[in-house]
Design brief:
about 375 residues; mainly beta; seven-stranded antiparallel sheet; four-stranded antiparallel sheet; 2 helices; 27 strands; about 45% strand
């Protein structure tokens, strides 16, 4: 056999061996090395499918919500203010509005999810509310003297108006564009939170949470009348009504300027005061449709000297959360996700459930993306 022929046979044999073992490598290892959707380094590293907790938005979001029929999710982009819709897994993304909204601060969806009240902060530092109806593609700016708004129904809003001439404030009800308004009651508290009490003709109003200020929860008839005090005496308090309006969940600081925060319950008459002994914020909770179950994120990694809730609201601190639910009739608490299933830091806010409560949606304040968790 010639030398050239021997070299050819040896080279061919070596090539076959390389191809054989290369094929084994690709089969055994390549499947595990498929890239998953990336997130910021401090956020949860998960893909959009086959995960207990999955990121379902490509970037930071604002005001995520279910569509009116519950079949999809829609949200504003925190980067440019454009509006998008996806299915519940974050797929089949489509654009609802190409209009960019620089300076967009907040969005409040109407109950039917077809209209919004937006708040925009301009370069001058001046903020203004606006109204937009997606079903008619029409909108308008609201008065510049409005500093708080909530939806009363699909066709009416309630807002706090400050009269710069008389230096006095009032609660008013009107059409979403500000027309056909009626004064409900005078109010001179500067910063307020408010929401209608479900299945009632009442509006609940309280001064925005501050650990150094006593919080006073009041109610006023949507037909008009004086504000009545429902509850007071706690500091840094924030409220979340049950879907039937029979109970309100609230979180409060342990004392004036306190460093601890916990959950409590109160009925709609201001009675049946109960401590749930859960150290979290109302903003990390959501009521179930059964009105007895509360899903909540339990925060960790809070520095001992933090002033709560101020340092959290102001973004001075972030939390590392775990997921739980509590039955308010028995007090039984149940962990929803084992610690080893949570990879990375989750600071949970803006919670909502899908129609059959098989998924819990939330925004992670670490990367401001929208996530979904299977229940």
């Amino acid at each position: 056999m010639s030398l050239l022929k021997k070299i050819f046979i040896i080279s061919s044999s070596l090539l076959l061996v390389i191809l054989f073992f290369g094929g084994i490598y690709l089969f055994a290892f390549k499947k595990d090395s498929l890239p998953i959707q990336s997130t910021q380094s401090s956020a949860v590293n998960v893909s959009k499918s086959n995960s207990l907790i999955a990121a379902i938005s490509d970037g930071p979001v604002l005001a995520p919500t279910l569509t009116g029929d519950g079949s999809n999710v829609k949200y504003y982009s925190k980067n440019d203010g454009k509006t998008y819709q996806t299915d519940l897994d974050g797929n089949n993304k489509k654009t609802l509005s190409e209009k960019t909204l620089p300076g967009l601060e907040s969005v409040l969806w109407s109950p039917d999810k077809n209209k919004v009240i937006t708040k925009t902060k301009f370069l001058s530092g001046y903020s203004q509310f606006g109204f937009y109806d997606y079903s008619t593609s029409t909108g308008s700016l609201l008065s510049g003297n409005i500093d708080a708004v909530t939806w009363q129904s699909d066709s009416r809003i309630i807002y706090k108006y400050f009269d710069s001439t008389t230096k006095s404030g009032s609660l008013n009800i009107s059409d979403p564009d500000g027309k056909n308004w009626t004064k409900l009651t005078p109010i001179n508290t500067k910063y307020i939170s408010m929401t209608p009490i479900p299945k009632s003709g009442l509006l609940s109003v309280w001064n925005s949470p501050d650990a150094n200020t006593e919080t006073i929860l009041g109610t006023v008839s949507i037909l008009g009348g004086e504000t009545k005090t429902l509850f007071s005496g706690n500091f840094g308090t924030d409220y979340l009504w049950s879907n039937d309006g029979n109970y309100v969940l609230f979180s409060s600081s342990d004392k004036k300027g306190g460093t601890k925060n916990s959950l409590y319950l109160l009925n709609n008459q201001g009675k049946d005061y109960r401590a749930l002994n859960i150290p979290t914020f109302a903003s990390k909770c959501i009521w179930s449709k059964d009105n007895k179950t509360i899903y909540y994120a339990l925060p960790g990694s809070i520095p001992d000297n933090s002033i709560l809730p101020n340092d959290y609201i102001n973004g001075k601190i972030s939390t590392t959360d775990t997921f739980w639910r509590v039955d308010i009739t028995t007090g039984e608490k149940t962990r929803l996700v084992d610690l080893d299933k949570i990879k990375g830091q989750l600071d949970v806010t803006s919670l909502f459930l899908n129609s059959n409560e098989s998924f819990l949606f939330f925004v992670n304040r670490i990367d401001n993306r929208l996530y979904k968790m299977s229940l």
